[in-house]
């Protein structure tokens, strides 16, 4: 809630979702999120850029009332997903002469998802412009950030780029230009990238380049804060989307009777002694969001599981499935664990890593409690990981 001026004639009319616990019913939001909508008053026409999640429609409508908006000519839909488009029907009801301006793909999705009538749309092509009188909107197609129809809207005279999900961050704050502590902004944006954008890294590379060439004065996303210094968030994305990885090994594990944990603890110790930054996550309690964020840059990921129900633990399979769907740029992977009387499952983990372009180390599976020879195998794995990190130049 609460209207805020961005610059003269342009206002924030979105909504903060301070206590939303989880996004896409999947990953945690420790700092909440926001659904950013902006109204642009031209000398002749008024445009609303994106709307808000349907659960916050009342806040958007109140914000428009606070500004005494009597007429909206255009509702720009940069993206069809409901956290930005879901209030369009309510806006059209309140402002019946408004038209929804978007591209053909987004129009088709909005008809499917929200049952908006065909005659309510004006469709645009890449680089088309729309005059508001003294202000001009230009549409820049930025597909696959993170749906096929995503686009950005550029306010030509002010060089302001409204990017919707692209460059978004999961943070709810009343400071529309962000808190003073840039680390909070960086982490919110990295969490957002990890959870939503990472699978589309190659498409994002092209779109980041387009935005950098445009050199906007301000980037105004649909989630989180507005960037008055766009280079900050462009540079952050350039690191995440590059092929470079960090000297880090994530160890995603679960242990029922302690044997797998003993292996994990030993692997972590030897990795650290070898100079690799190890980060074990007990998936029984760990945050999937934190794991996703670490997957953005980690060179290596190791899955560690005991056998249960004649296979590896279902929570490890679920996490491998998620990692596979997120398609991180991880270069090396390992599988370790302990079994009691038998079982199969290593192949099950492997088959869930098919999207990862990784070199897989020989799995280390031991029987029961680890013995000295088992620790030797784990030490050898740690040394192999360190050697690989050295080979690609991330460990000196
Ligand atoms: Fe923020 Fe793709 O929705």
TrEMBL record:
Pfam families: ODP (PF19583)
SMART domains per the UniProt record, alphabetical: Lactamase_B
Highest rank taxon of the organism: Bacteria
Domain Flavodoxin-like: 249-386
InterPro entries: Flavodoxin/NO_synth, Flavoprotein-like_sf, Metallo-B-lactamas, ODP_dom, RibonucZ/Hydroxyglut_hydro, Rubredoxin-O_OxRdtase
One Gene Ontology MF term: electron transfer activity
SUPFAM superfamilies in the record: Flavoproteins, Metallo-hydrolase/oxidoreductase
Family the entry assigns: In the N-terminal section; belongs to the zinc metallo-hydrolase group 3 family.
UniProt protein name: Flavodoxin
Species name: Desulfurella amilsii
């Amino acid at each position: 809630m609460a209207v805020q001026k961005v610059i003269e004639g342009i206002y924030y009319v979105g909504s903060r979702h301070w206590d939303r616990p989880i996004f896409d019913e999947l990953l945690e939001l420790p700092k909440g999120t926001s659904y950013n909508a902006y109204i642009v008053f031209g000398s002749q026409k008024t445009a609303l850029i994106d709307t808000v999640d349907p659960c916050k429609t009342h806040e958007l409508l109140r914000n428009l009332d606070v500004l005494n908006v009597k007429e909206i000519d255009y509702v720009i839909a940069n993206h069809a997903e409901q956290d930005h488009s879901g209030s369009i029907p309510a806006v059209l009801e309140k402002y019946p002469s408004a038209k929804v301006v978007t591209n053909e793909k987004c129009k088709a999705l909005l008809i499917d998802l929200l049952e908006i009538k065909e005659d309510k749309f004006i469709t645009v092509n890449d680089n088309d412009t729309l005059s508001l009188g003294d202000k001009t909107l230009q549409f820049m197609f930025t597909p696959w950030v993170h749906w096929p129809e995503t686009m950005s809207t550029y306010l030509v005279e002010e060089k302001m780029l409204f990017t919707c999900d692209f460059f978004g961050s999961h943070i709810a704050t009343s400071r529309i230009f962000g808190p003073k502590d840039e680390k909070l902004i960086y982490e919110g944006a990295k969490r957002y990238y990890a959870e939503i954008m990472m699978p589309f890294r190659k498409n994002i590379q092209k779109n980041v380049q387009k935005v950098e060439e445009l050199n906007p004065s301000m980037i105004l996303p649909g989630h989180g804060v507005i960037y008055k210094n766009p280079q900050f968030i462009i540079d952050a994305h350039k690191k995440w989307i590059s092929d470079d990885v960090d000297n880090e090994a994530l160890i995603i594990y679960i242990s029922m009777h302690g044997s797998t944990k003993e292996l994990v603890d030993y692997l972590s110790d030897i990795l650290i002694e070898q100079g690799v930054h190890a980060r074990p996550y007990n998936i029984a309690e760990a945050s999937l969001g934190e794991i996703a964020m670490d997957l953005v840059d980690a060179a290596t990921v190791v899955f560690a599981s005991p056998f249960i129900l004649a296979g590896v633990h279902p929570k490890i399979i679920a996490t491998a499935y998620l990692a596979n769907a997120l398609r991180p740029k991880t270069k090396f992977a390992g599988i370790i664990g302990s079994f009691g009387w038998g079982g199969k499952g290593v192949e099950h983990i492997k088959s869930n890593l098919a999207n990862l372009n990784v070199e897989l180390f020989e799995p280390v599976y031991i029987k029961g409690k680890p013995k000295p020879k088992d620790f030797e195998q784990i030490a050898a794995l740690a040394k192999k990981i360190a050697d690989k990190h050295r080979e690609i130049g991330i460990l000196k």
